[in-house]
Specification:
InterPro entries: NAD(P)-bd_dom_sf, P5C_Rdtase_cat_N, STEAP_metalloreductase. It holds the Pfam family F420_oxidored. This is NAD(P)-binding domain-containing protein. Keywords: Oxidoreductase. The chain is α/β, with parallel strands linked by helices. The protein has a single domain (17-211), classed as Rossmann fold. It is built from 8 helices and 10 strands. The protein has helices spanning 24-33, 48-56, 68-71, 83-97, 124-131, 146-150, 168-178, 194-211; strands at residues 17-20, 40-43, 63-66, 76-79, 101-104, 136-139, 153-154, 157-158, 160-165, 184-187. The strands form 2 sheets. Strands 3-2-1-4-5-6-9-10 form an 8-stranded mixed sheet, with helices on both faces. It starts with 16 loop residues before the first strand and ends in a 19-residue tail after the last helix. The relative contact order is 0.15. Mean pLDDT is 93; it is low at 1-13. It binds NADP nicotinamide-adenine-dinucleotide phosphate. Residues 21-26, 44-46, 80-83, 85, 89, 105-107, 141-142, 144-146 line the site of NADP nicotinamide-adenine-dinucleotide phosphate.
Length: 230
């Protein structure tokens, strides 16, 4: 498949972040990011619910509830949605998302969590990028189970977040935004690496279930370079 042409992302300061979705991952991301990113936009199909949700998470003062259209004021839009819904969102807002960084966290699992809805020749992140030729799509948090998002520390060290993307400036920008968080954030290269990364999540799940630790498991590459770690 030929790669669509994307303009490089050049803005380097004061990036406004939006998180779309108020499920397990959306809530966890809001809780982690709000202390570091004032004015975080939290987008939902039903934003009325988000004021109470933000209060529950202890971040009421630093989060602005928004509908999907309002959330698109952000420079960096994190889609905490299932792949099928992320695709629908991308198709609907492709024009508005042009020139922005779109962070994809989706693993394209079947409903029974036994397999993938996409063939091994692609990934959710690449499929999203194909639909957003004007945006810079960056993959992150694909391996972070929701309970780990709330508490990323393990006896072996903090959980890894693998950040991927074909636009190096956008990838660096996301690494920068995530660096204050209590994870080890690693530059994981091109978007196509999500063909492996997304499959690591399902393998991790299978191993965790077999050994009785699901969902409190995560990946951490031993011996990895420490440049982005805390
Ligand atoms: N759960 C995990 O441990 C985990 C780990 C790594 C990656 N992920 C990935 O993270 C993504 C979200 O997972 P999750 O566990 O947070 O799912 P979830 O709890 O089901 O939340 C998904 C959210 O998406 C929004 N949504 C639902 N249907 C929608 C639609 N038709 N159109 C637009 N938005 C819709 C809803 O938010 P509103 O009601 O606010 O609109 C919903 O709360 C998935 O792609 C998953 O693969 C999950």
């Amino acid at each position: 498949m030929s790669q669509p042409q994307r303009p490089p992302f050049t803005r380097s300061t004061d990036r406004r972040i939006a998180i779309i979705g108020s499920g397990r991952m959306g809530r966890g991301l809001v809780r982690q990011l709000a202390p570091y990113h004032q004015g975080l936009l939290w987008g939902s199909r039903d934003p009325q619910r988000l004021t109470a949700a933000a209060a529950e998470l202890g971040v009421a003062g630093s989060v602005e509830p928004a509908d999907h259209d309002q959330a698109l004021r952000a420079d960096v839009v994190i889609l905490a949605l299932w792949h099928r819904d992320a695709v629908t969102f991308a198709d609907r807002y492709a024009d508005a998302l042009a020139g922005r960084i779109v962070v994809d966290i989706a693993n394209p699992f079947t409903d029974d969590f036994e397999d993938f809805t996409l063939p091994e020749t692609t990934s959710a992140a690449e499929e999203l990028a194909r639909r957003l030729p004007g945006a810079s799509v960056v993959g992150a948090f694909k391996n972070t189970f929701w309970v780990v998002l709330d508490d990323p520390d393990f006896p072996e060290g903090p959980s890894d977040v693998l950040v991927t993307g074909d636009d190096p400036a956008a990838r660096r920008a996301v690494i920068e935004l995530l660096t204050p968080l209590p994870f080890r954030v690693l530059d994981a290269g091109r978007l196509a690496n999500n063909r492996t990364i997304e499959r690591m999540t399902l393998l991790g799940r299978e191993l965790a279930v077999r050994h009785g630790h699901y969902p409190r498991i995560s990946w951490r590459l031993l011996g990895a370079a420490d440049e982005q770690s805390r």
